[in-house]
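WARN retry 2 of 3 for item q-0093 after timeout on previous attempt; input resubmitted unchanged.
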Amino acid sequence: MTVNPADSEIFGALFGSAAMRALFADRRRLQSMLDVEAALARVEARLGIIPADAAAAIGAAAQLDRLSLADLGASTAKVGYPVVGLVKALGAAAGEAGRFVHWGATTQDILDTALVLQMREGLDLIEGELRRIAAALADKARAHRGTVMAGRSHLQHALPVTFGAKCAIWLAPLLDHLERLAALRPRLLRLQFGGAVGTLAALGEEGRAVVLGLARELALAAPDAPWHVARDALVEAACFLGLVCGSLAKFATDVALLMQTEIGEVSEPHQSGRGGSSTMPQKRNPIASEYVIAAARGVHALVPLLLGAMAQDHERATGPWQSEQLALPQIFVLTSGALAHAAAIAEGMTIDAERMRANLEATGGLILAEAVMMALAPSLGRAQAHHRVEAACAQALAERRHLRDVLAADPAIAAHLDAAAIERLMDPARYTGEAAAIVERVLTRAATILGSAAPADPDAKAG
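OK item q-0093 returned
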């Protein structure tokens, strides 16, 4: 039995991608630590700090299958960190060269740098899924730039929009996130190597040379100062993933609402049994959307743990650092799950344009009340126009009549709008404002960021 569903053989695939779960599993983490130890030995050998044959032996021994996970687990439970046991086991596996393992390093150097290596690969996975979702939403925005539907505020019909514009609104923050990710990487992908209190005193005059060499060896940046107790870059990465999940949760919430039986404008991709009920054979629940929202809430609950852990004492923290181990892997795994579900929705969603059109008519023209008000405003003034149209809407609702008919029967309105004008105003496609231009602007930006051909529509007009 697993305590964390994301690690479960039954539930794991619902909460995180297989690639991300493998990346943050014990074996991968330990191998990353071994990779750092081996790289350190190679660099120190090149600098003449340890013998070259010792570095070769350490590198050959830095393989997880040469260590006992049971022994490492027992050592970690006793010491509180896995590095002591790992260094001891690596030293034993390296034979005579073992006395040169971990030369000048401290536990947190190895743990932090290994974590950065994992996060680098994790962010690559995140970026790939973000690009996948963004591309799918760009395709939907392009295909449905003219598909008119009801825009809703406070869950009520408000004004006509297009489904293409709705997709563009989902897409735009994902493009922001891709730009944020590019800006984040240089701050995050930095070596940690400072020794016991950050001074590298054990390496004498060679300390900075080791830092520079090890950074090159691991393809990381060399920081100006160690960040043992300055955790802002790690927390920024967590907050970034919180933002990603927030945008995905908005998308998923909209899809779940659009899937309601009474609306039925969009559906998640369906396969037999997907989103089914144990008792109601007809059910097609928004299961992917539900797991996006659940994962996002999990991430948002964990981010404050990292923010709170930034208050670290002196040169090495007493407690706050350890809480990162609880939060960061889960944040990455849960984000990967949210992305995977969101990608499936974005690529495979079913759009019912006929239902969208039918729903536009559900209020008998009331969704176009603002259009009528604005057409009357030049003659009556905005306030009086609002008053007259509001009264007409109330009458249409009370008498269950189409707004068109009520407007035509009102002498105060008919004096300024004839039947043909009212009929034009009752066409939702004529009152989508900037919707087409919004789609084109977002698609143009998407083409730049995603590297695809510019999708601009030469027939699109702003406004």
